[in-house]
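Reopening this one. Same input as before:
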Amino acid sequence: MAVQGHQFSRPHFCLSLSEIASRTNSRQLPSRESNSLSMEVVTRRVNFSVSGSSRSVVNWYLLNSGFPPTLAISNALTPLIIQQIASPQPIGNSSELCKNRSLESNFPRAMLLLKEDEIVDLTLSQPVPLTAHPAAVYLDSLATGSQRTMRSSLNIIARLLTDERCDAMTLDWSKLRYRHTAAVRTALSRKLSATTVNKMLVALRRVLLEAYRLDLMENHDYLKAADLKSLKVTPQLRGRALTTAEIQGLIAHCRKEGTAIALRDGAVISLLRCGGIRREELLELELADVNLETGAVVVRHGKGNKTRSVYLSEVALELVKRWLEVRGDEPGALICPVNKGGRVTIRHFAADGDGIYKLVKARAEKAGIAHFSPHDFRRTFCSDLLAEGEDVFTVQDLAGHASPMTTKRYDRRGEARKRKAVQKLKF
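Same output, byte for byte:
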């Protein structure tokens, strides 16, 4: 099994600091479980090359001051869940990384939930095959964006339980019992909002379910450990809806600038505004997904891997066509990087979505518009359609929501719609 390229945040097997130091200096690691490993230090990172016939991935937990090893796996004969168990450190978008760091900073090292012997017992002592790791199996079932969020949640829970010694990939989730999960719920509820805690508890319950399904937990242990009530949540609207004037200002600024980058940005804004699509969905769009005659856009990689169609208005379609005059008709990514000289590279933006976040942020600053996120276009999309009298089920279908209750949370019409509705009553 050849290994090069994937970045592991924390592989599985623990080495002492002295062992790491000596093996780093000697530039090699010993054989283990029918695998031979060699190590080379490059700019304070550890690069591995792994070969062998084992069908499991030997993940080494290197405690070397936070410098992660860079690994990649290529072997067509080894159909394992590589990406999730390898847990590549997500580059993530800027706002999400800041949020995750903020969450983790809420839990100081002094918060010790378990005794030393319990922490040791909860730590994996040897590598686990990817298909037998409950956290890996759970994460693999999620869409890319959800993987980043839930992996971060599991990391926080694991570090909280083990005084920062384990993360999602090195904690033995099958050994968690009700006393552990109840302590986690209590600790999280003291530091985080109810909405955030409930999201993290969902991840915890799902990993416990996978541990049970993998025959790593007895039925009664699973039922007790997963029996955690969600916290009561006071509904609060997140983000904001953009005004018509703000949207027109963004489009006008792109048209006035007229560069290849501005035309690309105009197409992005039109797709987010009129398609109501998620950032991750935008990144996956191909040229062939857009029908320039009807304005239909096929979203093939929606949340939950669902496919749906959205439709662009005449103005939005015109902006996309102007971008395609610059991009050309070469098959591939619809939205592509453009350098300052106007050269277009036909490839997708990075899957973490950070490029789109920065693109929208920069365009808003240039147009003198208050900060908003790409997802605020989606909130605006739902609110405006509801305000125009479209029924919630149509909006739900266009947005790709699993439930109309989710669509309702995107409604930003506020009290004005209630006042307007009451005026229709007759005496």
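So the earlier flakiness isn't reproducible anymore. For the record, Residues 348 and 373 are 20 Å apart (CA to CA).
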